[in-house]
Amino acid sequence: MQITTNKIDSANAKINAAITRGTIDANIESIAKQIAREAKVAGFRKGKTPISAVKKQYGERLVQDAEAQALRDLLTAGLKEMAIAADSLIGEPNITKFEKDDNGINVEVVIATRPAITLGDYAAMVPEVSKPAIDDAAVTARIEELASAQAPLVNVDEDRALVSGDTALIDFEGFVDGEAFEGGKAEGFSLRLGSGQFIPGFEDQVIGMKKGDEKTIDVTFPENYGGAKLAGKPAQFKVKVNAIQMKEAVVINDELAKKMLPGYDDANVAMLKEKVKEQLESEAMSVKYNDELKPALMETFVSAFAIDLPEFIVEQEMDMALNKKAREMSEAELEELRNDAEKVKAMRETFRDDACRAVKATFIVDALAKAENVVVNEQELMQTIYFEAMQMGQDPAAVYKHYQESGYLPAIQMAMIEDRVLSKLLNDKIKEA
């Protein structure tokens, strides 16, 4: 077997080989002898089967196994010649040529390996992170918001108009084309103004009414309203305000602190403000990290590092992007593409730059994760998917199984690793406000 190797770069290589007829025949003989020793063939005792009987029974399968063995041998030999470790391969080797003739088989195998990445002083590329400054007014506002959400409603005795934030106890009845419709009537209904519970425009017209007022409100049901009979229809609602309620006034004192910090026996206003301030800082940092710092840092790394990219992975990424685009196209657009191969090819090529960036980012994150000892094991991956599924009201086991069967788990795991790596690098550069 004659082998020629070509190590294109640190991520791509080719092996060309001429597998002779003699090599295939020798492999057939070897495999047949092994089968003769181990297999049970009808009419013969185990281990006593003649080679000729094995060849007759297994025929074409022997040839296929012999060719497969030759391919494995040439791959092993080629990797050894190029000093490429088998565990550095990415994906399965791609057989791009397999031409058989009477003399044997001409083969070309394309392989991809994990590219070499020299990170250097990557920590120096991470900017200093300023911890957000949270003022006392923001802390007080959050405490009042949290306390108000749990505060009871109290009746407003003064003679005043309803304002946004109030709760109105109302009777109403709705009419379309002068006729009352099913589900359009209620008595003593509690409506918090500004909540968006009702049809757009309804709450705005209740604002300004007083206790005892009656009014006819004109609105139009949205086009996408659930009931087909009402969707897009103009309607009139007869409304009467029976009472006005508002949240009980919040008093920030030690008693409130004890209610809001049940795990702390010595809770007081100062502790409550400190805990709320920490929460606000965490929320602000999370927004800053996700919307600004992490994307910018990833872009810095992608621009800074020069990496050889495994070509077949880039091609796979382009194919996925093309398929996603196709799912968003109309049937007419798809039909046009089916009849124009060159247009499909041109469209696919438009995804190359983004595909290269995505693949490059993946390898950078992988290298950084190794340098920073960041891992996400299978248990953590499952826990994250289960938790998010429960938050969405979905069956966690079913969601996990769907991701598993669709091949999404590696991508989710890599996204988690990227998030942890970037967070760790940024956390190391935090300075107090």
TrEMBL record:
<dbReference type="Pfam" id="PF00254">
    <property type="entry name" value="FKBP_C"/>
</dbReference>
<dbReference type="InterPro" id="IPR005215">
    <property type="entry name" value="Trig_fac"/>
</dbReference>
<dbReference type="GO" id="GO:0006457">
    <property type="term" value="P:protein folding"/>
</dbReference>
<dbReference type="Pfam" id="PF05698">
    <property type="entry name" value="Trigger_C"/>
</dbReference>
<dbReference type="GO" id="GO:0005737">
    <property type="term" value="C:cytoplasm"/>
</dbReference>
<dbReference type="GO" id="GO:0003755">
    <property type="term" value="F:peptidyl-prolyl cis-trans isomerase activity"/>
</dbReference>
<dbReference type="InterPro" id="IPR027304">
    <property type="entry name" value="Trigger_fact/SurA_dom_sf"/>
</dbReference>
<keyword id="KW-0132">Cell division</keyword>
<dbReference type="Pfam" id="PF05697">
    <property type="entry name" value="Trigger_N"/>
</dbReference>
<protein>
    <recommendedName>
        <fullName>Trigger factor</fullName>
        <ecNumber>5.2.1.8</ecNumber>
    </recommendedName>
</protein>
<keyword id="KW-0413">Isomerase</keyword>
<dbReference type="InterPro" id="IPR036611">
    <property type="entry name" value="Trigger_fac_ribosome-bd_sf"/>
</dbReference>
<keyword id="KW-0143">Chaperone</keyword>
<keyword id="KW-0697">Rotamase</keyword>
<dbReference type="InterPro" id="IPR037041">
    <property type="entry name" value="Trigger_fac_C_sf"/>
</dbReference>
<dbReference type="InterPro" id="IPR001179">
    <property type="entry name" value="PPIase_FKBP_dom"/>
</dbReference>
<comment type="similarity">
    <text>Belongs to the FKBP-type PPIase family. Tig subfamily.</text>
</comment>
<keyword id="KW-0131">Cell cycle</keyword>
<feature type="coiled-coil region">
    <location>
        <begin position="320"/>
        <end position="354"/>
    </location>
</feature>
<keyword id="KW-0175">Coiled coil</keyword>
<dbReference type="InterPro" id="IPR046357">
    <property type="entry name" value="PPIase_dom_sf"/>
</dbReference>
<dbReference type="GO" id="GO:0015031">
    <property type="term" value="P:protein transport"/>
</dbReference>
<dbReference type="GO" id="GO:0051301">
    <property type="term" value="P:cell division"/>
</dbReference>
<keyword id="KW-0963">Cytoplasm</keyword>
<dbReference type="InterPro" id="IPR008880">
    <property type="entry name" value="Trigger_fac_C"/>
</dbReference>
<dbReference type="InterPro" id="IPR008881">
    <property type="entry name" value="Trigger_fac_ribosome-bd_bac"/>
</dbReference>
<comment type="function">
    <text>Involved in protein export. Acts as a chaperone by maintaining the newly synthesized protein in an open conformation. Functions as a peptidyl-prolyl cis-trans isomerase.</text>
</comment>
<feature type="domain" description="PPIase FKBP-type">
    <location>
        <begin position="165"/>
        <end position="255"/>
    </location>
</feature>
